[in-house]
Amino acid sequence: MKLTLQTDYALRILMALASEPHRIISVEEIAQKFSISKNHLMKVARALMSSGYVKTLRGRNGGMRLAKPAEKIAIGDVVCAIEPDMNMVACYTNTECALLPNCRLKPLIGTGVAAFIHALNQKSLSDLC
């Protein structure tokens, strides 16, 4: 399994915000800190905002802060919110598989993905900072 860059950047944003919870941090500052494109980070910040993980403040002194305490943000939940899909194999979206309905691979992979998310949810954002 490989997570997208968007998820990687989302976790970096959240860790940066959690490390200074009482400060408003701009996207530009985080982009410089991690040497990431500001434009790409803006898209990720919007996804985090729409998922309820960050609050944004506009204006000259604007930026972001966590929308809830870091200990209430489960890492697996963030991954599920940001990843476009968690389908490891094409048959999750393709119903014309020649092995269906007797395929044993699909449920095994589903169990593995569920275990992965469960393991990530054992840690909160506060555990990473």
Task: Outline the structure in words.
- By secondary structure, this protein is mainly α.
- The protein has a single domain (5-128), classed as Winged helix-like DNA-binding domain superfamily/Winged helix DNA-binding domain (Arc Repressor Mutant, subunit A, Orthogonal Bundle), CATH 1.10.10.10.
- It is 50% helix and 6% strand.
- It has helices at 5-19, 27-34, 38-50, 75-82, 105-120, 125-128, and strands at residues 54-57, 63-66.
- Strands 1-2 form a two-stranded antiparallel sheet.
- Helix 1 (5-19) packs across helix 3, helix 1 (5-19) crosses helix 4 (75-82) and helix 2 packs across helix 3 (38-50).
- The radius of gyration is 17 Å and the shape is elongated.
- The two termini are 24 Å apart.
- The mean pLDDT is 90.
Helices, strands, pairings?
Layout: H1 5-19, H2 27-34, H3 38-50, E1 54-57, E2 63-66, H4 75-82, H5 105-120, H6 125-128
Antiparallel strand pairs: 1-2
Please give a handful of descriptors for the protein shown.
129 residues; mainly alpha; Arc Repressor Mutant, subunit A; 2 strands; 50% helix
Short summary of the structure?
With 129 residues, the protein is mainly α. The chain has helices at residues 5-19, 27-34, 38-50, 75-82, 105-120, 125-128, and strands at residues 54-57, 63-66.
SSE run: HHHEEHHH
Largest sheet: 2 strands, antiparallel
Class of secondary structure makeup:
mainly alpha
> What's the pLDDT, averaged over the residues?
90
| Sheet with the most strands: spatial strand order | 1-2
- Count of discrete structural domains: 1
What is the CATH superfamily? Winged helix-like DNA-binding domain superfamily/Winged helix DNA-binding domain
Number of strands: 2
CATH fold title: Arc Repressor Mutant, subunit A
List the uncertain runs. Answer: none
Measured as a percent range, the helix fraction is 40-55%
Second rung of CATH, namely the architecture:
Orthogonal Bundle
Please state roughly what percent of the residues sit in beta strands, choosing from under 5%, 5-15%, 15-25%, 25-35%, 35-45% or over 45%. 5-15%
Distance between the termini: 24 Å
In DSSP terms, counting alpha (H) and pi (I) runs of 4 or more, how many helices? 6
Which word captures the global form? elongated
Q: Mind telling me the C-alpha Rg?
A: 17 Å
